[in-house]
Amino acid sequence: MKLILNKHSEYKKNKQVILKKRSNLEILESNFEVVDAEIPPINVGEFLIRAHYLSVDPYMRGRIDEEKSYAEKVEIGEVMVGTVVGMVVESSHDKFLVGDFVEARTGWQLYGICNGSGIRKLKNDGVPLTANLGTVGMPGVTAWIGLNVHAQPIKGETVVVSAASGAVGSVVGQLSKLKGCRVIGIAGGHKKCDYVVNELGFDACLNYKDKDFQKNLRDTCNEGVDVYFDNVGGIILDSILNYMNPFSRIVLCGQISGYSDPSALTVHNFRSFLINRIQLKGFICSDHMDLWRLALSELGDLVKSGQLKYKESIAIGLESAPKALIGLMEGKNFGKQLVKLI
Length: 342
Ligand SMILES: NC(=O)c1ccc[n+]([C@@H]2O[C@H](COP(=O)([O-])OP(=O)(O)OC[C@H]3O[C@@H](n4cnc5c(N)ncnc54)[C@H](OP(=O)(O)O)[C@@H]3O)[C@@H](O)[C@H]2O)c1
Prior knowledge:
Blueprint: H1 7-10, E1 13-19, E2 32-38, E3 47-55, H2 59-63, E4 84-91, E5 101-104, E6 111-114, E7 120-121, H3 138-151, E8 158-162, H4 167-178, E9 182-187, H5 190-198, E10 204-207, H6 213-221, E11 225-230, H7 234-240, E12 244-252, H8 271-275, E13 279-282, H9 292-304, E14 312-316, H10 321-329, E15 336-340
Helix pairs in contact: 3-4, 3-9
NADP nicotinamide-adenine-dinucleotide phosphate binds next to helix 3, helix 4 and helix 10.
């Protein structure tokens, strides 16, 4: 007898990545497990999403360790948290219809059920689907808020940004250039630095892995830094404190150099805050939900007009998500890290 699979039975098979054990140190693929799962029927007011791309982000590191953070942990046995872009394949919701593309926090799985809360319907407006997880998604909004709300750089000022080729850093630098600033990136490796200068248009980019990094930093920043947008913390933050101008600003966005080893975050040049009256501002992008619509609209327009460029690293298949996260923590990604799920 011939077995006929209809569309419904095809998407009844889900696959998930769950957290198997926590780690405060280095994360390993064995911290996760890939499992098959059933998809329960949707209720009235709900819809089913087939994920096409998963975003892999540094915040995921904090969700699987024991340390206190600003957000809830993923429990052992739970599906890993994460944002996807995907298509509605079944719906009992009057606003989200079959065929709509959405951005949703359904986690590391192929299918997820939503009720519409916190879901962004994506317009067919020329922004590439994957950009909604990067430059026109949470990382882009983070850059926009960190700059426009907290750093507020003005024309002629010098802005330094670390993890400069990455999802947040690349937007920070390009937005700062559009504001007429002198922009210096810091990134891991000559390839990333070349891209940041030649493709993204930064004025300079320094490779922090280079043995001459401290000398290069001195040569490039000796006229002073007005804004440091910190994505990494640790020794890079400590080094830049030597060059901050009086009344300059440091926006503390991330501390990725210490996510697996907090001892790497020690700062010695603390005195610079006092003598230079530096304003230090930590922030989380979700503190400013009121600004997301405006930020996304501006970022989308800049991507469509070609004024904001970006790069993506795309891993293939849900099973590759743990390795992609581990790679992100080691700088193996070049641009926004995604996982293709379809
Ligand atoms: N505050 C918020 O609301 C918020 C929101 C989103 C992201 N963030 C933070 O922003 C930062 C960037 O995030 P992203 O999504 O744009 O990631 P990303 O820059 O695309 O990728 C992470 C990058 O971090 C760098 N890195 C890894 N280990 C490092 C180390 N030991 N020292 C220096 N750099 C290291 C690597 O770049 P290199 O090869 O150049 O070293 C890696 O490519 C992260 O710290 C993240 O936690 C904060």
